């Protein structure tokens, strides 16, 4: 069974640009969550999508957005990039997500560097 | 907001010695508890989880954790560590009081020395 797949793995962007990251969840999983990991702030929840609807949202500015498609694949977008957006972005999938206690499986992450 | 505290940012230990990584959470109501491991340049891998039932949970790679409701703790233990256990370990909690999402501790870097 394939795991959570994230693309691209590494990317470098210039301040002010935008970026789109992609995530393919484990087959059959309907919940996809995104997390930002930085040395200073640790792992922070961005948002969760379930059945194409944003079900939960963390405390990030509106520049961070996401969406989920009918096949459960998800994308997140960051517009007007700032240097502080440099981070590892992790996608995670689970059967139903929320606080169900379902195991949440993580991808390898997308390393974003903003210069 | 509910929080998760990992009391040690780094834990150095010699190979074959026992180790305990500490985790405390703030909620007093029902929660789900998890330990994840992150090797360099990789994502997070689930070691074990507690949903309900027996307070001693066994996971992969010889790790186990004990849920202590009165002390709101979920400490991770391994009786004998290997060099390959060198990684960062994250405690995480979910539940309605945690906003129905996984809330992570700051992480503990386990350094196993030969």
Q: Would you summarize the structure shown here?
A:
The complex is a heterodimer of chains A (115) and B (114). Chain A is mostly beta strands and 115 residues long.
Radius of gyration of chain A: 13 Å
What percent strand of chain B? over 45%
Alpha-beta content class of chain A = mainly beta
Mean pLDDT over the residues of chain B: 93
Low-confidence stretches of chain A: none
User: Which oligomeric form is depicted?
Assistant: heterodimer
Supply the number of helical segments of chain A.
0
User: What is the H/E order of chain A?
Assistant: EEEEEEEEEEE
Distance between the termini of chain A: 37 Å
Largest sheet of chain A: 7 strands, mixed
Tell me the β content of chain A: over 45%
Give the helix/strand class of chain B. Answer: mainly beta
Provide an overview of this structure.
The complex is a heterodimer of chains A (115) and B (114). Chain A is an all-beta fold and 115 residues long. Chain A is 0% helix and 52% strand. Chain A contains no helices and eleven strands. In chain A, the strands form two sheets. In chain A, strands 2, 4, 5, 6, 9, 10 and 11 form a seven-stranded mixed sheet that branches. In chain A, strands 1-3-8-7 form a four-stranded antiparallel sheet, with no helix packed on it. In chain A, a hairpin with a 2-residue loop joins strand 5 (42-50) and strand 6. Chain B has 114 residues and is mostly beta strands. In chain B, a hairpin with a 5-residue loop joins strand 7 and strand 8. Chain B is globular, with a radius of gyration of 13 Å. The interface between A and B is medium-sized, with 22 and 24 residues.
């Amino acid at each position: 069974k394939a795991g959570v797949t994230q693309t691209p793995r590494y990317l470098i962007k210039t301040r002010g640009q935008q970026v789109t990251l992609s995530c393919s969840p484990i087959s059959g999983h309907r919940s996809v969550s995104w997390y930002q990991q930085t040395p200073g702030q640790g792992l922070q929840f961005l948002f969760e999508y379930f059945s194409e609807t944003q079900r939960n949202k963390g405390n990030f500015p509106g520049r961070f957005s996401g969406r989920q498609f009918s096949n459960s694949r998800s994308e997140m977008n960051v517009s007007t990039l700032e240097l502080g957006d440099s981070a590892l972005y992790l996608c995670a999938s689970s059967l139903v997500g929320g606080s169900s206690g379902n195991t949440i499986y993580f991808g390898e992450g997308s390393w974003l560097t903003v210069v | 907001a509910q929080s998760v505290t990992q009391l040690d940012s780094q834990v150095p230990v010699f190979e074959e010695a026992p180790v305990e990584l500490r985790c405390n959470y703030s909620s007093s109501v029902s929660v789900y508890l998890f330990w994840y491991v992150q090797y360099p340049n990789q994502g997070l891998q689930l070691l074990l989880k507690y949903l309900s039932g027996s307070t001693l949970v066994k996971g992969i790679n010889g790790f186990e954790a004990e849920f202590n409701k009165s002390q709101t703790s979920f400490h991770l233990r391994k009786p004998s560590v290997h060099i390959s256990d060198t990684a960062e370990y994250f405690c995480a909690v979910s539940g309605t009081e945690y906003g129905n999402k996984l809330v992570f501790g700051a992480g503990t870097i386990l350094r196993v020395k030969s």
